[in-house]
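Fold this sequence, please.
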Amino acid sequence: MQYLPQDGPYVYFRYDATGTVMVASNTTDKPASLPTAWFTERMAGFTKARNVLTGESLSSVASLQLPAKTAVVLELGKQLFGYRIDTPRNKANCPTHQPEPNLNEFTKLISKAIFVNVER
């Protein structure tokens, strides 16, 4: 699912039954604030994220700050009954957790492609 750029940043999502990845790209020369309320249709219920490129955890996804000429790839996660779900690296304390494969090769490929395109 993709969204038309609003005030610069371009955002799209890749998702399946096991997870959701958000890719946001700011190709402008100025930093951008990205209110995620614009993407309610795809982000409903998600409260946390992990930056796939840096490993940084975001405790809130209400708004994202994108520096100029950068892109982020975020693995989104939900919080349900005190347990985080949909983020494989944070399911250790969930009693119903079933092991899942690591981040798939497609997401890694997207990460590399985004970085190459933004630097041009």
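The chain has one domain: 2-113. The helical segments are 40-43, 105-119.
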